[in-house]
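yo

u said u wanted the structure for the complex thing, so here. seqs first:
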Amino acid sequence: MPEPGGRLLANLMHFARTLRAAGLPVGPGKVIDAVAAVRTVGITDRRDFYWTLHAVFVNRPDQRLIFDQAFHVFWRNPDLLKKMMGLVLPEMRIDAAEDEGTAMVRRLAEALHPDIGKKGEAEESETEIDAAMSFSDREQLRGMDFEKMSLEELARAKAAIARLRLPVQDVPTRRFAPDRRGARADLRATLRAALRSGGLIELKRRSRRRRPPPLVVLCDISGSMSRYSRIFLHFMHSVTNDRDRVHTFVFGTRLTNITRYLRHRDVDLALDRVAEAVTDWSGGTRIGHALCEFNRLWSRRLLGQGAIVLLITDGLDRDAGAGLAHEMDRLHRSCRRLIWLNPLLRYEGFEPRSLGMKAMMPYVDEFRPVHNLESLEILIDVLSAPTIRRGPPTAEWQAGYDRAA
Amino acid sequence: MTILPSSVDDTLALLGSADYVADRSLATAVHLALHLNRPLFLEGEAGVGKTEIAKVLASALRRRLIRLQCYEGLDVASAVYEWDYARQMIEIRLAEAAEEDRGEIESTIFSDRFLIKRPLLQALEPDIAGAPVLLIDELDRTDEPFEAYLLELLSDFQVTIPEIGTIHAEHPPIVIITSNRTREIHDALKRRCFYYWVDYPTAARELEILKRKAPGASEHLSREVVGFVQRLRTMDLFKLPGIAETIDWTEALMQLDVLELTPHAINDTLGVLLKYQDDIARLHGSEAAHILEQVKAEAAAAQEVPSPRPSPRMRGEGGTREREGEGQPP
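structre next:
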């Protein structure tokens, strides 16, 4: 228990620094808040003290665990905490602002194998501290390295992304903008104009503002898709930085949310961070499992405002489509539009033989096959092509499958 | 004007007096919000009693409750203020007929008389009973521009109306913001608030809540209901039942004169507890019966021991918090 007075202030500052290092967004303002809060509640009870600081420093549910661990260790022994920092929070370190130079060096050094897992386990046994992080994965985990983008490529990517028109374009919002030919009268503007001019009141008009709906990209990065990973990641990076409300996930055997890494402006740095964060590059695919995870953990948070889901996968599923239809159905029901982009078809007349594909087909609104995916430009052209409305998008495929069966 | 509670214990008692069974941790956050004039940001799953806190605070402190229900596209005109255009137009016509000075017309029509006050502006107005409780409900349903608008209001408790000027609250309202976390609220807004994650209650607390909210239910039935619901929350369901569902379910069972849970009674009323067809289909029949058996066995075991100690169940990320909440030795 810390003594009140000068020591407490110093300790609170130290504690705040610790939390900041651990990745919590704690600024100087928070320290002042914390002091005021502790004064208000008083330090008579350890539990109250805990919850006082909790109310000030924690902003999101996922920060609670970090706060909890930091609190218990720090207010017993601040020095121990310093030793632990390296162990407890390897994932958070990726988020922390990092200077670009070291990131580059590290990337070169670790080119194909992030051995962060091994290191973590070794330290874990030494210090005997329970840091329940996801190190001990028995799956085969692989690293990924991407070629850097040249300046020319970068310019082309930007130009290409500007052309992107998804089959569902802007949707009307409930907000209005002045519009001469709008359908509704803008009374406020009318009144202001009337006051300025006097005499005849001229009616001003407005119409609904339109904006693109949120976009959720679910991209398959399994072995069969590995040759396209770079293109897709570049696509996801460009689209994330081009518009708001874009969320990106990659999946192989597990689902990873990479939105935050892709928000980094620099494409190479962003991709490096993705490569570090994702552990199942070029392995098997469990589409049903990944979608199940998405539906359960993310769908209600991301698909709330009528989002479009862009599902990028070749439909080759290790679990042979088990449970996939059910999850596809749910995903389809909870979004505005489900677009499936399939890069497997390298030649015309391809017919879906795998069970995974068959399970997915009935649930897509829009189906976009790519026969020869060489560049971002082709990808964007394919996505921007106008919708051809002739029955369900996969009708032809379905017919082909039935013939084959 | 009612006096604010002076300590965390008093806050806890205050909430209790209005039949809200709160964790001490929640009382601490409420206490801080009341005394430091900061909004309280409550996040949690649907049906854990977030909105209820604002209602309870208003009734316990005898303050006015002003509620702003958020939705996508909520704008200043429906949240803060709007001018009464029709009356303004008439006023202009009348004034012009009377050949009044133009500057004078302008100052008349942009006066308090023509201002329609919406919840946020109402909350800034002085009130004899003391500053009102402002509930901004389900903030996650609105969009980012509105969130940004709230920044000025929540940090300085003032609103700027271009035609009039800045309106400042003499006594800042008690602000409670709730979110179901269907999307992440921006950090800039959260930074101005005290944050609290409202979790599902422990078995003991849930039983206490049931006692207050469904007083007609027998002790036996309540125990079974709580045991069953607590077990459901450990399962991998699409939507876990909240406290609101527990209360509804108990009431439904009482209406049907059920004195003891049976697989049959559960099957008939499962729709009150679970709101997704998948979840219902999964629980229907043998699975529910199986859980019920476990609950009954647990209850029987607890009765053999002289003083049954309710065991808080660890649930995912809530686990560590609960440990603290249930009183860890200093």
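The CA atoms of residues 71 and 142 of chain B lie 5 Å apart. Chain B touches chain A through 53 residues (CB under 8 Å).
cya
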